């Protein structure tokens, strides 16, 4: 039985090229990834800094220093500390449901602008925080910004990009996430050394810099042709934008497909038409479980994790920088090859690499660390290398593809809603993982890595069996991949108006 057939590409009939106009627009929009990555990286760093812990979480610091009997795995176990990290994601979860109708009704540009403004406010409040309440409210505002940006930016990138380069353009978002994580880790490493203990304020407040770029840039961003045709009564407006984006006047084939997709969307009163409702779980099961790969353990708590295995404060922060560099490099590699080798191949390679790395990390920590020991330099370095290998696998596959697949796979009429569901469920699992990881690490010890490795194995098998290849398939022609897939074709029905003419008779 064939698995995941590839639909013949129709992108060859579309004219156009990569224009400087579309490149610049996508670069500005992808800044939304930097603010997301920056926040992921910054929280783990500041929660490992002594001045930050003493000011907001003194119990955690005192327990780590004074309690010599406590397990290595339990030194940072604090629900209040995890609430600081995870509050952003529950706010993002709620915000994305507001972002969906905004994106659908007012366009992608408006949602990007709202996300930038909210993130600016959160960065200001976090940098100025003098108590835990200001700190968490600031995180909530950051979550609102991330919720809007993560819902709208991947859609914007996929709709602006030429179909044969859509994977590379969309992966620019995850590449910017990696850039944000790396910048945050480097900044944490520098601010940790500032005398006076206020370096963490710089770390939190500097989130305003990428947020300012996104907010100001959003004011000048063009709306996508797909969104224009969805909201503008005059189709010529969308056609002119498409011509500008593609750098040619001959866009008839692509424009006709956009018009047809828009007409289909008008026939549905809700953003979840019946004949497409199985397409949502098909994509959602693939990417919404992304957080249970365990990547958030590394992203949020890398410095804490390295402290757990015996690294010093500076060494822990520098190790996080190294893993950030590895992830960024592999995301860039994935960006270069995704439209050549395909999505499913990268998922498989990355999944196997992540599974093997996590099994080895768990085994080493189980055998060599213990509750009160410290890993030797040799084993500590080996764990760092394995974590780097794991991050590399994620950067090649689940990281960038987790944003690409849902942004390209949904029909126009449910695209904003489908992306919203994907982001929302992703935020839900991210919140659960962020809120429970330190407690899980305390109770499961090294078994935590076996837990996440098991999820990676399950998800990789699922992708191999149930995810069709979308390489080079035009974004408005995605229906075909479901109708031809060995499993999903039994659930996806043809459009009723494809089977019958207006007078009710069957079409020949």
UniProtKB/TrEMBL annotation:
<feature type="transmembrane region" description="Helical">
    <location>
        <begin position="317"/>
        <end position="338"/>
    </location>
</feature>
<keyword id="KW-0769">Symport</keyword>
<keyword id="KW-1133">Transmembrane helix</keyword>
<dbReference type="InterPro" id="IPR045262">
    <property type="entry name" value="STP/PLT_plant"/>
</dbReference>
<comment type="similarity">
    <text>Belongs to the major facilitator superfamily. Sugar transporter (TC 2.A.1.1) family.</text>
</comment>
<feature type="transmembrane region" description="Helical">
    <location>
        <begin position="111"/>
        <end position="130"/>
    </location>
</feature>
<dbReference type="InterPro" id="IPR003663">
    <property type="entry name" value="Sugar/inositol_transpt"/>
</dbReference>
<dbReference type="InterPro" id="IPR005829">
    <property type="entry name" value="Sugar_transporter_CS"/>
</dbReference>
<dbReference type="InterPro" id="IPR036259">
    <property type="entry name" value="MFS_trans_sf"/>
</dbReference>
<dbReference type="GO" id="GO:0015293">
    <property type="term" value="F:symporter activity"/>
</dbReference>
<dbReference type="GO" id="GO:0016020">
    <property type="term" value="C:membrane"/>
</dbReference>
<feature type="transmembrane region" description="Helical">
    <location>
        <begin position="169"/>
        <end position="187"/>
    </location>
</feature>
<feature type="transmembrane region" description="Helical">
    <location>
        <begin position="379"/>
        <end position="401"/>
    </location>
</feature>
<dbReference type="GO" id="GO:0015145">
    <property type="term" value="F:monosaccharide transmembrane transporter activity"/>
</dbReference>
<dbReference type="InterPro" id="IPR020846">
    <property type="entry name" value="MFS_dom"/>
</dbReference>
<feature type="transmembrane region" description="Helical">
    <location>
        <begin position="449"/>
        <end position="467"/>
    </location>
</feature>
<protein>
    <recommendedName>
        <fullName>Major facilitator superfamily (MFS) profile domain-containing protein</fullName>
    </recommendedName>
</protein>
<feature type="transmembrane region" description="Helical">
    <location>
        <begin position="21"/>
        <end position="42"/>
    </location>
</feature>
<keyword id="KW-0472">Membrane</keyword>
<dbReference type="InterPro" id="IPR044778">
    <property type="entry name" value="MFS_STP/MST-like_plant"/>
</dbReference>
<feature type="domain" description="Major facilitator superfamily (MFS) profile">
    <location>
        <begin position="25"/>
        <end position="471"/>
    </location>
</feature>
<dbReference type="Pfam" id="PF00083">
    <property type="entry name" value="Sugar_tr"/>
</dbReference>
<keyword id="KW-0813">Transport</keyword>
<feature type="transmembrane region" description="Helical">
    <location>
        <begin position="344"/>
        <end position="367"/>
    </location>
</feature>
<feature type="transmembrane region" description="Helical">
    <location>
        <begin position="80"/>
        <end position="99"/>
    </location>
</feature>
<keyword id="KW-0812">Transmembrane</keyword>
<feature type="transmembrane region" description="Helical">
    <location>
        <begin position="199"/>
        <end position="221"/>
    </location>
</feature>
<comment type="similarity">
    <text>Belongs to the major facilitator superfamily. Phosphate:H(+) symporter (TC 2.A.1.9) family.</text>
</comment>
<keyword id="KW-0762">Sugar transport</keyword>
<feature type="transmembrane region" description="Helical">
    <location>
        <begin position="421"/>
        <end position="442"/>
    </location>
</feature>
<dbReference type="InterPro" id="IPR005828">
    <property type="entry name" value="MFS_sugar_transport-like"/>
</dbReference>
């Amino acid at each position: 039985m064939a698995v995941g057939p590839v639909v013949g590409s129709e992108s060859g009939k579309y004219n156009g090229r990569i224009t400087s106009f579309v490149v610049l627009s996508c670069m500005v929009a992808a800044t939304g990834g930097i603010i997301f990555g920056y926040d992921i990286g910054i929280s783990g760093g500041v929660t490992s800094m002594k001045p930050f812990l003493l000011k907001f979480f003194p119990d955690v610091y005192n327990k780590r220093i004074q309690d010599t009997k406590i397990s290595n795995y339990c030194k940072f176990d604090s629900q209040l500390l995890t609430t600081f990290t995870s509050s952003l994601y529950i706010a993002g979860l709620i915000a994305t449901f507001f972002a969906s109708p905004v994106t659908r009704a007012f366009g992608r540009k408006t949602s990007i602008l709202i996300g930038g403004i909210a993130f600016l406010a959160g960065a200001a409040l976090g940098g100025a925080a003098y108590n835990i309440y200001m700190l968490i409210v600031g995180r909530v505002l950051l979550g609102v910004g991330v919720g809007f940006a993560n819902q709208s930016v991947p859609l914007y990138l996929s709709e602006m990009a030429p179909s044969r380069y859509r994977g590379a353009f969309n992966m620019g978002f995850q590449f910017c996430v990696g850039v944000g994580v790396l910048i945050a880790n480097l900044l944490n490493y520098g601010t940790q050394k500032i005398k006076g203990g206020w370096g963490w304020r710089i770390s939190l407040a500097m989130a305003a810099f990428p947020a300012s770029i996104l907010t100001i840039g959003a004011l000048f961003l063009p709306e996508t042709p797909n969104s224009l045709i969805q909201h503008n009564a005059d189709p010529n407006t969308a056609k002119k934008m498409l011509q500008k984006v593609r750098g040619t006047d001959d866009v008839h084939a692509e424009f006709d497909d956009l018009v047809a997709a828009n007409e289909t969307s008008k026939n549905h009163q809700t953003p979840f038409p019946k004949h497409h409702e199985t397409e949502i779980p098909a994509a959602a099961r693939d990417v919404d479980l992304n957080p249970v790969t365990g990547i958030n353990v590394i992203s949020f708590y890398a410095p804490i994790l390295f402290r757990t295995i015996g690294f010093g404060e500076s060494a822990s922060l520098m190790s996080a920088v190294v893993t950030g560099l590895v992830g960024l490099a592999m995301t860039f590699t994935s960006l270069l090859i995704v439209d050549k080798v395909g999505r499913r191949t990268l998922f498989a390679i990355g999944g196997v690499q992540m599974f093997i790395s996590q099994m080895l990390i768990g085994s080493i920590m189980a055998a060599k660390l213990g509750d009160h020991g410290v890993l030797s330099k040799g084993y500590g370095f080996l764990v760092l290398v394995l974590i780097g290998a794991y991050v590399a696998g994620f950067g090649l596959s689940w990281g960038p593809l987790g944003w690409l697949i849902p942004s390209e796979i949904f029909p126009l009429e449910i695209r904003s809603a489908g992306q919203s569901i994907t982001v929302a469920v992703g935020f839900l699992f991210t919140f659960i993982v962020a809120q429970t990881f330190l407690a899980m690490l305390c109770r499961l010890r090294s078994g935590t890595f076996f837990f996440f490795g098991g999820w990676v194995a399950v998800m990789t098998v699922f992708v191999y069996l149930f995810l069709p290849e979308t390489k080079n398939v035009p974004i408005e022609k995605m229906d075909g991949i479901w109708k031809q897939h060995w499993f999903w074709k039994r659930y996806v029905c043809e459009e009723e108006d494809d089977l019958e003419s207006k007078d009710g008779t069957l079409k020949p």
